[in-house]
Design brief:
single chain, globular
Length: 248
């Protein structure tokens, strides 16, 4: 292992970086901006060799093979700090993402069997998987779980409802600039940190997933009746102004 990368600010994507640095002491370490901005942030390890997308930071040694574009917002523009880095592996035309766009699989990821439906190991039924995924995204249950799940799993790629409604309303313009920039790469497939990977996705599909940023229908559009919990979460996290965004 020659290089370790922290692609964003979400805790789950950097929880192991200090341990990996210990295991691979010769590996260089590259991070997205916005680290160590919260008392809850985790230690990154003994060293950081560069900050992705930051002026004055050296380019990573793999830059000629893997391009990178960073989405980064922080106070005072936004109530909190958030970063995600998109990478483009030129040789395979592969877009590498953490959370930005996901492909929801019809069947539950095998890892879920390790803790099952109610905390005990066991395979999930399709019905249980549908319920879990809808609940995880704070989408209201309305007796049509299968139909609501299919609306999420049918498109080539979707934006997580959590990110759409609790992050992007407070940084819509900044996100739109980043999304347009990423869509300029000629990628043909995506490897994401969650759910199904790889999956086929074109730049046009990527833009469709983010249609809500541009005043257009998105590849996934929830019904208003599904959004009560997300409205409450957005107001608590971002303030009442977030509910005035056209994204809703």
């Amino acid at each position: 292992v020659g290089h370790l990368v922290v692609p964003g600010t979400s805790l789950e994507h950097k929880a192991s970086i200090a341990e990996f640095s210990r295991i691979y002491p010769k590996a260089s370490v590259w991070v997205a901006p916005g680290q160590n901005t919260s008392p809850l942030d985790l230690a990154l390890g003994p060293r950081v060799d560069g900050v992705l997308g930051q002026m004055g930071s050296p380019p990573p040694p793999w830059f000629s093979e893997i391009d990178a574009k960073v989405f980064y917002v922080a106070p005072p523009e936004t109530p909190g700090t958030y970063a995600e880095t998109a990478f483009f592996h030129k040789a395979t035309r592969t877009l590498l993402l953490s959370d930005a766009v996901l492909k929801v699989p019809d069947l539950p990821p095998p890892i879920l069997a390790s803790y099952g439906y109610e905390g005990q190991a066991g395979e999930l039924t399709p019905e249980q998987w549908h319920y879990k995924f809808l609940a995880f995204n704070f989408l209201a249950m309305r007796g049509t779980n299968d139909v609501d799940f299919q609306a999420l799993s049918r498109p080539p790629g979707v934006v997580s409802p959590i990110l759409r409604f609790t992050l992007y309303p407070i940084c819509q313009q900044q996100a739109a600039v980043w999304v347009k920039s990423v869509a300029q790469w000629p990628f043909e497939q995506v490897v994401a940190a969650h759910l199904q990977s790889p999956f086929r996705l074109t730049p046009a599909d990527f833009l469709d997933a983010f249609g809500f940023l541009f005043g257009k229908p998105s590849s996934y559009e929830p019904e208003p009746a599904q959004l009560n919990a997300l409205r409450s979460a957005a107001e608590n996290l971002d303030g009442p102004e977030a509910l005035k965004s056209s994204i809703w």
